[in-house]
Amino acid sequence: MANKNQYDVVVIGGGVVGSAIARQLTRYELKVALLERASDVSRGTSGKNSGVVHTGFNVPIGSIKAELNVAGARIFESLCEELNVPFKRVGKLVVALTDNEIPDLERLKEIGDTNGVPSLAIVGEDEVKRMEPNVMGIAALHAPTAAITCPYTLTIALAESAALNGADVLLNQEVKKISGAMGEFQIRTGSDSIQSKLIVNSAGLYSDHVARLAGVKRYKVWPCRGEYVIIDNARSNLLTSMVYPVPPRGGSGLGVHITPTIDGNILLGPSAEYVKHKRSDGTSSSTVTKLLQEARELLPALDPRDVITSYAGIRPKTVSSTVGGFGDFIIEEAPEFPGMMHLVGIESPGLTAAPAIAEKIGLWVGKRLDLQPRSDFASGYSRPVRFREQPFDLREKLIGEDAKYGQMVCRCEAVTRKEIDAAIRNPLGVQTLSGIKYRSRAMMGRCQGGFCSTRIVEMLTGEFGVASEAITLKGRGSELFVGSTKEARRHAN
Q1: What is the rounded CA–CA span in Å between residue 176 and residue 129?
Q2: Which of 133, 283, 333, 346 has the most CB atoms around its CB within 10 Å?
Q3: Percentage of the chain with pLDDT > 70?
């Protein structure tokens, strides 16, 4: 009998790239595992970015990054259609505020044209105002094919689709040791021993660490924090397109972006700050203020009173702060440890490139293993119905079919009891409050869970038959409750 922990391919890292790879490999007669150190997929950079499907006009000509960015952009919409993930082609304006910045627009267009980005055009002030009446600028580079998606919805859909197609998605599995050789690798986690013929290192921020576990010491990742500000969706009428400044040369970031989201909010950011620790993902009031100030140069109508929250993600950069700029994607099999593919420095446009990277890794696997396509691969994926997105007559029909659609749990985002139930019973078995949040959008509105979070905790305790103290925000170390106030008072007296 085969060892249940024996796989053809183990993918380390449950971000958008790792999840895309795992799903791609389930197209074949392979036993696949996706290992994630956190309590859910998309808990790192993949869930904390702009959600932009980049076109490829600001990536170096001839780079791996440019190739995979453009290739990923071409197939991104069809992937979202397969997975029932929201995708919207809103276009992008890179705006010049002074005459001195216009040559930079021309440079970006030249790069984009060479990289094969379609329909790029430089437009004047009148056209900028026609497209975005609230935006300041004397000229802009217009990229009409640029699009937005929801990064965590996509990552979750990829991982859950992989699981439904037979992949083992193993959460809370931090890799501690890698040994052996191609065909008979041994992967030791905190709680298990796993065998695999091939390994894909897609650990994002920790890809250099995972490589070192296998004795590969050639990679170094520098963490670079990017903070974001979220504007209330009541202000969604301020713009329809993405609006970017002319990017500074040689910096660690691209300037403050103003990005509409799929759900009607506006994102400001990210900032760019090298940090010492890979878990330094906190935010600061000073950075929030700075992001608002810079964004208002392009969109003066922004009001600080419309800020509902902020968050931060960490970029896995392969260039240090002293060098600056952006390194190319590293996608290679280190000669000193064959059979293990390393994906290092997959920062922006990693989200866009993810489906193309997945296809590239599939080709690599095919050179080492006999790939037989599966006849029963299910490309489609059914996301639970979003009640708020339905027309009024369909809402009435849904409530008639299931009364739980008529029980509103999160009023800010109009999330129903039925949707929370579906999120709780997810294919990955995630039981955290954040897991429910990212699958349903509950707790993402103006009050940030102030009213609905306690109801969702009650639903979790009822579903799993556990005490409130067992419910966590995002896994071990993020407990929400330590005991009842009644008991605390009794002991105090």
Answers
A1: 55
A2: 346
A3: 98
For residue 414, what are its two tokens? 């109009």
Q: What is the pLDDT of residue 1?
A: 35
Q: What's the CA gap between 86 and 262, in Å, rounded?
A: 7
The pLDDT of residue 384: 80
Indicate if 269 and 410 belong to the same structural domain.
no
CATH number at residue 256: 3.30.9.10
Alpha helix (H) residue ranges in 214-332: 285-298
Same domain, yes or no, for 56 and 111?
no
148 touches 262 (CB < 8 A) = yes
Interval 95-120: pLDDT, tens: 999 999 999 999 999 999 999 999 99
Alpha-carbon dihedral angle through residues 411, 45, 108, 73, given to the nearest 10 degrees: -80
Across-strand partners of 199?
A: 10, 340
Beta bridge partners of 416: 408
pLDDT of 350-363, one tens digit each?
A: 999 999 999 999 99
196 and 76 within one domain: yes
Residues 331 and 459 reside in one and the same domain: no
Domain holding 393, by residue range, is 389-488
- The total number of structural domains in the chain stands at 3
Q: Rounded to a whole number, what is the distance in angstroms from the first to the last CA of the chain?
A: 60
Query: What six digits make up the tokens of 31?
Result: 């036993």
Is the pLDDT score of 297 beyond 50? yes
Q: Considering the entire predicted model, what is its pTM? A: 0.95
Cα separation of 466 and 472, whole Å? 12
Give 242's strand partners: 92
Instruction: Quickly state the pLDDT bin for 252 (edges 50, 70, 90).
Output: low
Q: How far apart are CA 404 and CA 401, in angstroms?
A: 9
Mean pLDDT computed over every residue of the chain: 95
Q: What is the pLDDT of residue 458?
A: 95
Q: Of the residues 267, 288, 315, which one is the last residue of a structural domain?
A: 315
Query: Around Cβ 72, how many Cβ atoms within 10 Å?
Result: 25
Position 493 in a domain: no
CA distance 441 to 406: 17
The residues that are catalytic are: 54
